[in-house]
Amino acid sequence: MKMDIRVATLEDVQIVAKLAIQMWKSHTIGELAREFYDYISKEKGIVFIAVADAGAVGFAQCGLRHDYVEGTASSPVGYLEGIFIKAEYRKRGLARGLLETCQKWAKEQGCTEFASDCELDNENSRKFHLKIGFVEANRIICFTKKLTDSVIDKNVTMTFDESLGGCTYDHIKRFEYKKATMKDVDELVRTRIIVLRAANKLSDDVDMSLVEKESYAYYRYALKTGEHVAYLVYDNGKFIGAGGVSFYQVMPTYHNPTGKKAYIMNMYTNPEYRRQGIAYHTLDLLIKDAREQGISQIALEATDMGRPLYERYGFIKMEDEMELIK
Q1: DSSP per residue, 154-210
Q2: Which of 14, 191, 207, 321 is most buried (most C-beta within 10 Å)?
Q3: Is the whole-model pTM more than 0.85?
């Protein structure tokens, strides 16, 4: 049997997803396809495909771990994120071939160690790892818990550093991040006008009455239907910031099978409170709300002042979109 191993490209994400679903059965093919598209397009690691009998029969996903990896003493460490071979093609050396290709790639990235993991009850995977040269480093049990909305509604103690806000504070500030309700429409509209004046460099004497009227109508409708989520930020009752996200849907595409999209809007922080991580944390709450709705494509318009924040979070500038203004 002739086997070929090649690097997966963006055109292969559906092929890899259909293989991966047989191993990661709690996901959907669509979810896996989006994850592999993100993984490959952002060069987070590499994916190899094993081809035999003119078809894809297996894959291996390999990345670099820069944080501590059990049993290792270097960084980065090459890491086998996943490996799968169709049942009818196993025990023919395909898995070993994929692994050796991953190890060669990791070595080319400057790694001196290579690691992997498996579930405690996956005896077949454990035997496979031991057979091809891995040594068991440790066994752990992981724990998780849900963070309820009630946590958001209460005062949260946060420390801010350069990675979030751009300056370091030697004291702790307490801010309240409140998810907006219909009772907060006045505050949302007032903030919206402030943001629009600042973004468009409008003086206070420019008439914004029509925008204000339409904003009231929008918030009343969108908050009720769930098409918009907003957060208001307070410091001991004083309003200091806000942010919102609007949800909408377009025709499904290859890269976005659900057609669901989100648009970040109305990001605002009181000038006295800027560079303290407030905008970053507000953005993070909005992104999480979008993710919970199964939305993977999230967009926004960035001012020169806001661009570094969004780039730090992971947003990238799009070059292939156009807009008809008039």
Answers
A1: SEEEE---TTTTSS--SS-EEEEEEE--GGGHHHHHHHHHHHHHHHTT--TTS--HH
A2: 191
A3: no
